[in-house]
Fold this protein.
Amino acid sequence: MSSCKKRKVCCPTSCSSPEPLPKSCPAYGNFFNNTSLVTVLTGTAFPFNIQGPISGGVSLLNPTTIFIENRGDYKVNFVITDNTVVFGPNPAAFPHLPTVGLFLNNVQVSLEQANFGLEITQAEGRGCKPIVGDTILSIPHNSILELRNINT
């Protein structure tokens, strides 16, 4: 008969011999902004004013910064709406190339992995357009994550 050693893991494992590896813990955060329109200047981070469900050491440190306590691989996704109506029909305002990017510990994540944007080539393409980003990042413990406006 084998004995089961007690150890601290976040998810219970079955008692067997040899001992199985610990299971991973769920970690997530849901942050959003329910303000109708927010102006985010080039180079600055998008603000969040609502924190939904959180778990596993993911939290909102301040209105623009997400704190991630535990290292691991995290799926990060976001949707923002870019209001291009403000440019009016002026052809000089186009092409319009709004771009947003993820910053991990104040360093921009590589362009191919975490920058997302739109290309609006003429005034007829104006409107409120979604920019959707979805990636997986390997994040070290005690990290901060921000979504910043790269190009307005």
User: Anything to note?
Assistant: The first strand starts at residue 28 and ends at 32. The radius of gyration is 21 Å. Residues 111-114 form the longest helix (4 residues). Strands lie at 28-32, 50-55, 58-62, 65-68, 72-83, 99-104, 107-108, 115-117, 128-139, 143-151.
